[in-house]
Amino acid sequence: MKKLFFILIILSALICLNAAETERLTHTVYEEYHLNWSPNGKYISHTTVVNGNSEFWYTDLETAESFKIDITGDLTGDMYNSWLADSQTLLFDAYTPQEGRLAIFKVGIDGGEAEQLTQPITLMASVSPDGEQFVYMKDGKLWTCNIDASNPQQLTFGSSFDYHPNWSRDGSKILFTSDRSGNTDIWYIVLETGEVVQVTQHSESDDRACWSPDGKQIVFVSWRENNDSSIWLVNADGTDPVKIPCECGDSMPTWSPDGSKIAYTSKRGGQSDIYIYTLPQTGITKQDEPVESFQLLSNYPNPFNASTRIHYRIEETAHVTLMVFDLLGNQIAMPVNEVHTSGTYSVVFDAKSLASGIYYYRLTTGQHSAVSKMLLIK
Predict the structure, then answer these.
(1) Is the dihedral of CA 241, 281, 236, 134 positive or negative?
(2) DSSP state of 357
(3) Residue 255 near residue 37, CB atoms below 8 Å
């Protein structure tokens, strides 16, 4: 009975945490999709379906006001979009007035006449971080070109269908969705070498991937549960996939430039509105000093009340996990779950919601593991 009561306390705390981490940005009677966060972090662009017609909008994050980008000529289409580095100009795809086929256009957030950059059928542009190039899909393959659409170069080859590209923030890689494995998975291509790397390997569909600003993680949409979409995070090497606290039917994720938030669409309010999920902050600090061996150091203070800092050393680059367990062996927290380079680290463990008692913490890398214990006194 005591164990059940303790579990209910932890679950209640987690539910409150998840509710606090997710906020609803838009409250409309329309459908929102194709989200994209501006490089300056101030806006989110999106397609809004109004009376059955797709329109191009953006939302100011400071005021939560949404503004239509009035484009001369009434261009229509999916409006898949990508910001330029100035955060004032966007590329988007729409149907050409003459042929009625998709091409890529450029327009400012104040609207006006859009400039057609590419010839049909081209779509799904993603602008490079320096704003000098963009990648797009043509005939089921990825192509790159200069920002004025000159010098087009084919990037992917073969019989696969490659789409939904997303340029990494350091400009070295491009994520994309592909069926080249037989399933729909997330891949990326290293631009310097042309190497193509598979990230996810799943029997269902993974799609709409976006890089984290530091390039260590990828957020994507997956149909892994109940044949409905949900949002997942995965390390860039494909390890440790985890579903973020969301609901089935959530889609279209985009990462904030500072890496602290993920925006996505959800129908949890009845319509497809924009929600923002704030990622948990680990509070991990690092000292760049020579480290000769893996070592789990003692936490301080110990005993402690409310919080304590756990110290450890990593000798070489590795994926590191630090997990906390109660006396019954139940995992109750994971303060660290990411790739570390060599160095001395520390992380704050917050135990405000836990009962007094002895807790164990285990540090693990690919080749090493160590366990220590701490005493919480309230």
Answers:
(1) positive
(2) E
(3) yes
Q: How far is CA 169 from CA 22, 46, 178, 215, 254, in A?
A: 24, 20, 21, 7, 13
Name the nearest CA neighbour of 164 among 210, 124, 123, 104. 124
DSSP, collapsed to helix, strand or coil, labels residue 133 as: strand
Which pLDDT tens digits describe the chain residue by residue (378 residues)?
334 333 333 333 333 334 336 788 887 767 888 999 999 999 999 998 888 888 899 999 999 999 999 998 768 887 899 999 999 999 999 998 888 899 999 999 999 999 999 999 999 999 999 999 999 999 999 999 999 999 999 999 999 999 999 999 999 999 999 999 899 999 999 999 999 999 998 767 899 999 998 898 899 998 766 667 888 888 898 887 877 766 657 889 999 998 888 999 988 767 788 999 887 665 677 777 788 899 999 898 999 988 898 999 998 888 899 999 999 999 998 899 887 888 899 998 888 889 999 999 999 998 899 999 999 998
Q: How many CB atoms lie within 10 A of CB 151?
A: 9
Q: Half-sphere exposure (CA, 13 Å, Cβ side) for 169?
A: 19
Parallel, antiparallel, or unpaired for β 89-95 and 102-108? antiparallel
Q: What whole-number distance in Å separates Cα of residue 352 and Cα of residue 231?
A: 28
